[in-house]
Amino acid sequence: MSHSPGAPTRLLVAVAHPDDETFGCGGLLLHAAAAGTDTYVVCATRGEAGEGGTGDEPLGVVRERELHRAAAVLGVREVTLLAHRDSGMSGEPEPGTLAALDPDALAAELEAHVARVRPEVVVTLDASDGHRDHEVMRDAAVAAATAAGVPRVHLVCLARSSMVRWVEHQRAEHPDREHLSVEDVELGTPDELVTATLDVSAHRARLAEAMAEHASQDSPYDGLPESLLSDFLDSVRLRTVRDTGAAGPGRWWDHRRPGWVEARTATLVP
Hints:
Layout: E1 10-15, H1 20-24, H2 26-34, E2 38-45, H3 59-73, E3 78-84, H4 103-117, E4 121-125, H5 132-147, E5 152-157, H6 160-173, H7 182-185, E6 196-199, H8 204-212, H9 226-233, E7 235-243, E8 251-253, E9 260-262
Helix pairs in contact: 3-8, 4-5
């Protein structure tokens, strides 16, 4: 595929679990691949603390296979699995799990990977869903990319306004979830911190194919009305946390239209 002028040559997505690359960053990976960007995924764990599983196979084996199959659908050039242990979502993290690792050691491990791939853009999740492994990976990825001098670092965001609508839907459709509150769990990134929104609706069908590869896991989008599905799947919201200005501050190439798509300026975070 030809490379769109101005699009990054290499983009690295850093995530904690198999399926994060698809449910969280799939639209972005498809968008970048369509522009001719070489895309890479580094995944910290096999997701062995997740739910589900098939037959007698260990869940981590199943999810690793799903990761590679989904990445192939997304057009990812290379997948690297660090093979740390999944921490799960509750209880004290066990020694050796991702949330129990020395943050500096994890950042150094990622920095070595970044130095090998040499991406112009590093992307990770904003962790505004409250999962501790997502938080650990976000902090380590940002630290590693900054130390390695990557020109741009972005967080894929769950916008607070979208999460408010999601909570309202959950409360209305599931009586056992009436306790849910955006304020209590700080779901979503405040909308004013979102610096760019990408229209990835052209890739919706392909994204659905990639999501189907993660058959061992329940999709977070199951049962949502189309209005919410469109909000989550047809757009990718980014928060810029580092931009050296190599291609203009706060800009992102949109291969569907000529030129640059301007984004609102955001306060950079360390």
